[in-house]
Amino acid sequence: MSLPGFKLLRPRTTAEAIALLAQHAGNIRILAGGTDLLPSMQQKLFAPQYLLDLRRIAELKGIRRQRDGAVDIGAVEIGALTALTDIEHSDLLRRHFSVLPDAAKTIASPVLRNMGTIGGNICLDTRCLWYNQSLQWRKSCGFCIKKDGDLCHVAPGGTKCWAAFSGDTPAALLCLDAEIEIASAAGIRRVKLAEFYTGLGDNYRKLAADELLTRVFLPASSAGHRGVYRKLRVRGSIDYPLAGVAVVLKQSNGHIEDVRVALTAVNPAPVLVKGATELLAGRRMTEEWAEAAGVLAAQTAKPLTTSALTPEYRREMIRVFTKHAVFSLATET
Predict the structure, then answer these.
(1) What's phi and psi for 127, nearest 5 deg?
(2) Exposed, middle or buried by CB within 10 Å (0-12, 13-18, 19+), for 140?
(3) What's the distance, CA 46 to chain centroid?
(4) Are residues 13 and 107 in the same domain?
(5) Do residues 112 and 204 share a domain?
(6) Which residues contact 149 (CB under 8 A, 6 or more apart)?
């Protein structure tokens, strides 16, 4: 499948990129790694007049400790253009924010992780069996709410798009209480990642056409939490998650002090499992409490027929992944 025609813009600074976004708002798409955007353009899901290629902007790359003068405050800043490979192999992140590289290493393949970026994974378009298809296929089905139509094939009769968010790293970032920086001609705003997603499959993020995600911040309060990410997919590599669970946990004297669980690929947005800390805080881990955490996570998951596996199986795997992840983190020595 061929790409539609477009003009490539290649700024060298963030300020130049923001100016171009403002100038061409509504007719422009951001190109970071291109691993998701370009296949979508081949499927005629997008046909922008301009592509804004950010890859020459060095200031948006890298993993840095945040400092107050000469003092390391324990927080970390990650440029939005930082390659997923760099996230995966960062010694700093592995030591202090281990759930994030654990999630990054599951994404696609080594070649695609070399190209893909943390910002691109955060802003990944939602996916659905009825949406991620060729133009001819979608036309034969009458299109859908997310693109060119007014019907959701997943939930007929409804007015909401249920396309699933399928990025891996946002679940880990939610567990770490991450914040993101968004820049535009109007200035810079910093928001909790948990507030960035709308929960709607067709309008899934709070990012205006003239805005650019520039940085990710990991707070010192989340440093030192042990974490893991578990992912369900058909193949052992390449595939997007069909269900994903991120868990971080902190203990004191054998008792759980803090635990956070987040899900991806089973809702239109990545979501934190509410009540996980209240359920487990202060307890010694047992299989029964791990099972209770798994049940709570499964109740949060709302998978529908947006992928090749059944919603029932995906929800069950959320339960299993959560139970095993919580138990293993709490009992490992």
Answers:
(1) -130, 155
(2) exposed
(3) 20
(4) no
(5) yes
(6) 142, 143
Q: Is the same domain home to 254 and 178?
A: yes
Q: Give the number of other Cβ atoms within 10 Å of residue 44's Cβ.
A: 19
Q: Is residue 143 part of a domain?
A: no
Query: Of 57, 77, 105, which residue sits at a domain end?
Result: 57
What is the spatial distance between Cα 172 and Cα 161, in angstroms, rounded to a whole number? Answer: 24
DSSP secondary structure code for residue 151 in this structure: -
Q: Is residue 241 part of a domain?
A: yes
Tell me, yes or no, whether 232 and 285 share the same domain: yes
Is the pTM above the cut of 0.90?
yes
Looking up tokens 């109740």, which residue turns up?
A: 299
Q: How many residues does the chain have?
A: 333
Query: Is residue 178 within 8 Å of residue 93, measured between CB atoms?
Result: no
Kindly report, residue by residue over 182-234, the tens digit of the pLDDT: 999 999 999 999 999 999 999 999 999 999 999 999 999 999 999 999 999 99
Q: CA 233 → CA 80, 250, 300, distances in Å?
A: 26, 28, 20
Q: Classify residue 18: in a domain, yes or no.
A: yes
Helix, strand, coil % over all residues of the chain, rounded to 5: 30, 25, 45
Angstrom distance (rounded) from CA 209 to CA 204: 13
Nearest of 102, 99, 93 to residue 74 by alpha carbon = 93
3-state class (DSSP) for residue 330: helix
